[in-house]
Design goal:
The protein has 143 residues and is mainly alpha-helical. It has 2 domains: 5-87, no CATH class; 90-142, no CATH class. The chain is 62% helix and 7% strand. It contains 7 helices and 2 strands; from the N terminus they run E-E-H-H-H-H-H-H-H. It has helices at 28-37, 47-54, 60-70, 74-87, 90-102, 107-120, 125-142; strands at residues 5-9, 21-25. Helix 1 (28-37) crosses helix 4 (74-87). It is elongated and about 50 Å long. The chain starts with a strand and ends with a helix. Pfam families: Terminase_2 (PF03592). InterPro entries: Terminase_Gp1_N_sf, Terminase_ssu.
Length: 143
């Protein structure tokens, strides 16, 4: 299959035509753009780099405008979302978080990652609940 296909139900049609399925396809360059944009490599999340590579373009300013246009295309966004769901999952996120926690160069990032880990593990829920109760009590006193 060349390009990506997505089946969508058509809307606002008579009952007999409700079940008509329309296929949307990406051309090979659009598919490559999406693959690069959603990859876990140097192109991840960078529309300009992804566009320059997929369309073999050297001009940065043109690539910037054209990548921006592509990233407004619903077919492109749908495909990127599908690819992101494959690339970014709980296992990957947990590994990345563990990497940041274990590293020693960027201490603010390390502390932030440890805080996030504690939130995920439910270690600070009680503190948050206590703060909410205090806030509610203070609101009732003012009323």
């Amino acid at each position: 299959m060349v390009g990506w296909e997505k089946e969508t139900m058509t809307e606002n049609l008579p009952a007999k035509k409700e079940k008509i399925i329309k296929k949307r396809r990406l051309n090979p360059k659009q598919e490559l753009f999406c693959q690069l944009y959603a990859s876990d490599e140097e192109f991840f999340g960078n529309g300009v780099k992804s566009y320059k590579k997929a369309y073999k373009m050297d001009d940065y300013k043109s690539a910037m405008v054209l990548a921006s246009n592509l990233l407004r295309n619903i077919k492109i966004l749908d495909r990127i979302n599908v690819l992101m769901d494959i690339v970014i999952n709980n296992v990957v996120v947990d590994k990345e978080l563990a990497f940041v926690i274990k590293q020693k160069e960027n201490l603010p990032a390390k502390v932030s990652a440890i805080k996030e880990y504690n939130v995920l593990k439910g270690r600070i829920i009680q503190k948050i609940e206590k703060e909410e109760r205090i806030l509610i009590i203070n609101l009732h006193k003012d009323a």
